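Good morning,

Attaching, inline, the backbone tokens for the sequence recovery test we're adding to the shared suite. The designed sequence is right after.
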């Protein structure tokens, strides 16, 4: 009797495994489609949770830092750690500003990645934002200011 119960239980588990794998693949495809749709519309936000400066320690971020693209403008709210070459007295605004995008390039990378390059000018500096977005919504961001050292971030796409 025990062997029969184990056999029936094993058959039930074997039948549900392909269904779970299929739903996992469907979720993955749905997420990739939502990410692509947000990037195509140029309406997305990258929530940043990790900072990687050129000098010093990399660290996890606890406050809600982000970069938001809304059509032809960008709203940057990022912490900055690094060396400044020609910055206003007191450090200025850093990477906390809203401005119009002067150049936006979007290209397809390997394995479904999207490589987005955004050039923008604030009152203090010119910046190049290089954003790599993966199909699962994970993102890496490199910011190259003209008057400061570059800095990188990691986070997740919010749409």
């Amino acid at each position: 009797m025990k062997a029969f119960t184990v056999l029936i239980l094993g058959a039930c588990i074997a039948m549900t495994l392909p269904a779970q794998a299929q739903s996992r693949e469907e979720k993955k495809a749905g997420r990739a489609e939502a990410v692509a749709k947000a990037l195509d519309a140029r309406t997305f936000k990258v929530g940043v949770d990790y900072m990687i400066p050129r000098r010093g320690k990399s660290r996890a971020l606890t406050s809600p830092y982000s970069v938001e693209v809304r059509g032809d403008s960008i709203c940057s709210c990022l912490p900055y750690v690094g060396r400044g070459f020609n910055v206003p007295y007191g450090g200025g605004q850093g990477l906390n500003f809203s401005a119009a995008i002067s150049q936006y390039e979007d290209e397809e990378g390997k394995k479904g990645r999207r490589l987005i390059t955004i050039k923008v000018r604030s009152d203090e500096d010119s910046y190049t934002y290089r954003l790599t977005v993966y199909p699962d919504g994970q993102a890496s961001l490199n910011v190259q200011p003209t008057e400061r050292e570059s800095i990188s971030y990691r986070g997740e796409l919010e749409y």
